[in-house]
Write a structure and sequence with these properties.
This protein is α/β, with parallel strands linked by helices. The protein contains eleven helices and 13 strands. The protein binds oxa(dethia)-CoA.
Length: about 325
């Protein structure tokens, strides 16, 4: 059989902060109930970073575990990509902070900004670099500290999010195992549905922007919900078609963990059982860029992914953006 150069995930890592914030704790903060949060989202608790912890700190922890699992020395990395919507600062890129802390002296470094889809976008960029022969070892991290950009007085958003980081080391493969297909998409027209308005060149930070809470996440939850329910099944079908396999052949779906009802609706639309969808939103809430790599890490650690299994990753988020990936594990 003719073999072609592809890429595969050689190691995974994840970091979740210690501090657990339960729904009961949020009941004391805003006008909400454990029942509302559980029924509407499936979330029971989430992790919140310690005051001294920022996105790069969590990213480094996850990256170190992924590098160890892959048996790759940081000095051998060609590229460090960090997907995030909550970088340590606007610049330098969080990827540069991570590169320095890891000692990845030979690596280029840049952030990927596609909101919650950032990790899967980063994976696609890493794959392309490896397949083109431009890189041999790429570190892709998804890390977010949304607790820092969440309005803790806004019950429509503060119950949803959590902090964490996930990482993958991408290396060449012979095409038998590894990444089979991607689909990256965007609909900029839906941008206003999910934004952090201030702090950029359009609306520089000022006393007024802070007073108006424009340095926090603003979201039209109902519209994002509709978009997500529509795009997840579509994105899964597309990567399957691109790889020439049927949706029913996929062994495990690893979707962005935003709301269990979104995942249930995708399962229904695809005619696939919920047992084939990995879900950990009850423990972590929506951790943005970290959600897919953390879910994949846990699925593998729990033995839900075996050598040769077909795994579909799918993410969606602000932008609006979406990204899906089909891979054969091993
Ligand atoms: O990573 C991508 C980003 N985000 C997402 O994927 C989020 C997608 N959206 C969602 O998950 C859901 O739309 C939410 C969980 C955000 C909201 O669920 P929903 O079923 O769409 O509720 P809703 O926004 O239609 O609100 C229903 C009611 C409203 O009250 P009224 O107007 O019916 O009286 C809200 O004010 O629930 C109220 N509400 C709450 N009540 C208790 C909103 N947030 C809360 C809350 N506790 N935390």
């Amino acid at each position: 059989m003719r073999r072609h150069r592809s890429s595969k995930i050689a190691g995974l890592g994840r970091y979740v902060p210690r501090r657990v914030v339960t729904n009961a704790e949020l009941e004391r903060l805003v006008d909400t109930t454990d029942e509302w949060i559980t029924v509407r989202t499936g979330i029971k608790e989430r992790r919140v970073a310690a005051p001294e912890e920022a996105t790069s700190d969590m990213a480094v922890e996850a990256a170190q575990e992924a590098l160890e699992q892959a048996g790759v020395d940081p000095a051998e990395l060609d590229l460090v990509l960090v997907g995030t919507a909550s970088p340590d600062m606007i610049f330098p890129a969080t990827a540069c902070l991570v590169q320095e802390r890891l000692g990845a002296k030979r690596a280029g470094a840049a952030d990927v900004s596609a909101a919650c889809s950032s990790f899967v976008y980063g994976l696609a960029l890493a794959h392309a670099q490896v397949v083109a022969g431009l890189a041999e070892r790429v570190l892709v991290v998804g890390a977010d500290t949304l607790s820092r950009i969440t309005n803790w007085k806004d019950r429509s958003t503060c119950v949803l999010f959590g902090d964490s980081a996930g990482a993958a080391v991408v290396v060449p493969s012979d095409g038998q195992r590894g990444i089979l297909s991607f689909w990256l998409g965007a609909d900029g027209g839906g941008g206003p549905l999910l934004t952090l308005p201030a702090g950029g060149s359009r609306l520089p930070a000022s006393y007024e922007t802070v007073e108006r809470g424009q340095h926090y996440i603003h979201m039209n939850g109902r519209e994002v919900f509709k978009f997500a329910s529509r795009i997840i099944p579509r994105a899964i079908e597309e990567v399957c078609e691109r790889a020439g396999v049927s949706v029913a052949e996929v062994d495990l779906f690893v979707p962005h963990q935003a709301n269990v009802r979104i995942i249930q609706s995708a399962a229904e639309r695809l005619g696939q059982p919920m047992e084939k969808f990995y879900v950990n939103v009850q423990r972590y809430g929506n951790t943005s860029s970290a959600s897919v790599p953390v879910a994949l890490y846990e699925a593998v650690a729990e033995g839900r992914v075996r050598d040769g299994d077909l795994v579909a990753l799918v993410a969606f988020g602000g932008g609006l953006t979406w990204a899906s990936c089909l891979l054969r594990w091993g």
